[in-house]
Design a protein that fits this description.
The protein is of the alpha/beta class. 39% of the residues lie in helices and 16% in strands. Bound molecules: pyridoxal-5'-phosphate.
Length: 367
């Protein structure tokens, strides 16, 4: 077995190619959390015809694109800033607020901590406890918020736990934060996959809370991580102005600008995606839960966190066995509060999910 100290992100297929001698095109990634439908047929047909858009600079204000996103999200386009993926906006928001102390609800995506550190601040993690199904206790959180926190960061639904906080609970959190002068950044990268999106989507709250900013993008739901298109929504005009005044111009290129204007209106694709993910979420959870070797935490997003209960099996062994069969899972040992007994898989097409589960059970049987 090849032991590796670092984790493999969904985009690290080149490393796998070198280590295991498997061509990256042949690897099925259950780790990248990307919509298995791939690019929508409409976009595939439309975008090549629009290729000549790259001969001009994009609109510096991205007004039409922001209006399309505003209509899609149900918010005022003037509250929207677009960026080169959610990643650029995570960086811009954190570097512009440059918090001395940030509180991050974790285990979660590692970029928030990295950006806080790059901007000269320190981060503490507020743990979501496993016993509580990785759900948030607001009472416990409030105690931590009292300790000079300037920025609260959370991901909703959260990566890798696939748990979520309701809008009603977030109102309470935002009220506490408002009282304490804390700004809140919420990453909703996975929200469109949630069956109960209407109960957790925080965009309606941006109209009343000026201490809230929401991040989203097209990488996962629209299966376009290479396009690099993300957006931030906040009712805080001063922050929008500050970010725009410090942001490099044209970080969203003309192709992404053109594609974006179509993607957010492609309702057929959105519906097909939701149907597929709902069906496969139910199938994967039911099948894994039936095994005594695995503990499944109820997923809201398009992926599930799983704990290995079998003593002699861990996520290193499982990763190794599955990658040799050209299937890549996310070993969660690098996430804070987790270890190599945890792994994460996203929901792909049915035949692929079936093959993965079969291979997981076969590996468990051998250990
Ligand atoms: C929670 C979360 N936010 C943001 C990103 C990066 O998004 P983007 O491709 O829009 O920069 C990822 C990628 O894995 C993610 O999991």
């Amino acid at each position: 077995m090849i032991r590796h100290t670092d984790h493999f992100h969904g985009s690290d297929l080149e490393t796998i190619e070198q280590l295991y001698g498997i061509k990256k095109e042949e690897i099925l990634s259950f780790s990248a959390n990307v919509n298995p439908l791939g690019i929508s047929p409409k976009l595939k047909e439309y975008l090549p015809k629009e290729l000549s858009c790259i001969t001009a600079y994009p609109d510096r204000e991205y007004t039409e694109l922001r209006k399309t996103i505003g209509a899609y999200c149900g918010c005022d386009y003037e509250n929207i800033t677009v960026g080169n993926g959610t990643s650029e906006l995570i960086s811009l928001v954190i570097s512009n607020r440059h918090p001395k102390r940030a509180l991050i609800i974790g285990p979660t995506y590692s970029e928030y901590e990295r950006e806080v550190s790059l901007s000269g601040g320190t981060s503490n993690y507020f743990p979501l406890s496993e016993e509580n199904g990785f759900l948030l206790s607001i009472q416990e959180l409030e105690k931590e918020l009292l300790k000079d926190v300037e920025l609260l960061i959370l991901c909703n639904p959260n990566n890798p736990t696939s748990s979520a906080i309701s809008r009603a609970s977030m109102r309470t959190v935002l009220d506490i934060c408002k009282r304490l002068g804390i700004f809140v950044m919420v990453d909703e990268t996975y929200i469109e996959f949630a069956k109960n999106q209407a109960e957790i989507d925080l965009i309606p709250l941006t109209a009343t809370y000026n201490n809230l900013l929401i991040l989203r993008g097209v990488s996962k739901f629209f299966s376009a991580p290479g396009l690099r298109l993300g957006y931030a929504i906040t009712g805080n005009k001063d922050l929008t102005e500050l970010i725009n005044s410090r942001k490099n111009p044209w970080t969203v290129n003309s192709l992404a600008e053109t594609a974006g204007k179509l993607m957010f209106t492609d309702t057929d694709y959105m519906q097909k995606t939701r149907e597929l993910i709902d069906t496969e979420r139910t199938y994967v959870v039911k099948t894994l839960s039936a095994s005594p070797d695995f503990q499944v935490y109820e997923p809201v997003a398009n992926f599930v966190l799983v704990k290995i209960k079998k003593e002699d099996l861990d996520a290193d062994i499982l990763f190794d066995a599955l990658i040799r069969q050209k299937m890549m899972i996310r070993n969660c040992s690098t996430f804070p509060f987790l270890n190599n007994k945890y792994f994460r898989i996203c929901f792909m097409e049915h035949k692929d999910n079936k093959r993965l589960l079969q291979a997981i059970f076969e590996t468990a049987e051998k250990h």
